[in-house]
Design brief:
Length: 282
Amino acid sequence: MTAQNPLDISDSSIHLLQRQELRSAALRWLGEPDPTRKAAGVAALQEAWRAGCLQLDTQAGLTPQCAIPGRPARPQLVPPREVKHRSMGTVAGRAALIHALAHIEFNAINLALDAVWRYAGMPEEYYGDWLQVAAEEALHFSLLAAHLQALGFAYGDLPAHDSLWEMAQKTEDDLLARMALVPRTLEARGLDATPAVRAKLAQAGDRAAAEILDIILRDEIGHVAIGNRWYGWLCRQRGLDPLAAYAELTASHKAPPLRGPFNLEARRRAGFSERELALLPP
């Protein structure tokens, strides 16, 4: 079985986006509370950007006109310790895991959109990179949400935590910190964790979920690589040593400590240097 793309992007949807400005449109979709509409809107935005239908103002100072990020009334947000882990031997247990993954991907859409609208003055390629990330996260969310429905559940049925967006708030005033601590730290942890999660789902007989995680891991390597690219670019612009700056940022923003086991192959493909990998804790 091959995971299918549940996002249906019509030519009319792309036409409606013509003549919009990319960063303003990203802010608009960031504020959208409905997950399905958000995912489809971001996918259409990416198609319009690829078709050359959008303008880009890299210098505009934008202000949100509504609460961000837009999100539905459910799931209930609770501290991470209150999110229960259940047995993979039951449908409910697998659904709980898929729900947690879907929530991560929903937050990841918001994080990528936030990177597009919030930070002015970057090269055009920066905005295109993070729009691509947002669109791929939208696909991941849609695949997981569809699989969750096949298991008899829906996104929002179970509690979830908000750690990813909390780091976005901590780093909103400094793009260097955002690149260091979201893609290079929190999302890189996903590279480490995904193979074991995939193995559990496959062992439980959920081949469809395992195939979705194959797609996610492939794309997330690229997302972390984009974070590494722009982190390195910013360090060069500011005359900073990347390793020393990273250590300082993790301490000042109280980032969660790194814990193994580490997926060294995936981290190498995502652009981490051998110096960085050598500094990972045993």
